[in-house]
Design a protein that fits this description.
Layout lengths: L1 E2 L1 E6 L6 E14 L10 E7 L3 H4 L2 E5 L8 E7 L2 E8 L8 E5 L4 E2 L3 E9 L4 E7 L8 E7 L5 E7 L6
Antiparallel strand pairs: 1-9, 2-8, 2-11, 3-4, 3-7, 3-10, 5-8, 6-7, 10-13, 11-12
């Protein structure tokens, strides 16, 4: 799979949801299946310990359609930090960070592996097949644990249209 666009977002289940997640890296799992243990072969896709990698990301919120959610992303020593508040006011309801379109070579991928520290909320990782405004996108949800760094494995088969 080759995708030019990666996005992390939070869609709330109630109004006034504060969000905060730090993302250290995204690795690609290569092999025949995804198990509970980390796979034998991985290769980095994004390593936010490199500040230059974080500069390719920006926040995009429901303000683009009249909403009032507000988020920001900051590159820190602990990785890329995405934080803000999601509001359902004015038919809004999302906050996200997005990379500028570019090709990520995900050929042979069985899973994406993330290292995140969150706030206990559920987030989504979105993969797009092209950089068109209304292009096809695949999403997988992942839960975070408040204040704890965790490894999250997202099998490719779990990404849904």
């Amino acid at each position: 799979m080759r995708t030019p666009d990666l996005r992390f977002s939070c869609a709330p289940y109630g109004a006034g949801l504060a969000v905060r997640v730090a993302i250290l890296y995204v690795y690609l799992s290569v092999g025949t299946s995804m198990s509970a243990n980390l796979p034998h072969e991985t290769r980095p896709v994004i390593d936010f310990r490199d500040p230059a990698q974080g500069q390719a990301w920006t926040s995009v919120d429901d303000r683009v359609m009249g909403g009032v959610s507000a988020s920001q992303m900051t590159v820190t020593a602990e990785g890329l930090v995405f934080s803000g508040e999601v509001s359902l006011a004015h038919n809004g309801g999302f906050a996200s960070i997005r990379a500028r379109p570019r090709g990520y070579d995900l050929a042979g991928a069985t899973a994406l592996l993330l290292r995140v520290r969150g706030d206990g909320q559920t987030y989504k990782l979105t993969l797009r097949t092209d950089d068109a405004f209304d292009g096809v996108q695949y999403q997988a949800r992942f839960a975070t644990q408040a204040g704890a760094w965790i490894d999250v494995g997202l099998p490719v088969a779990d990404f849904l249209l």
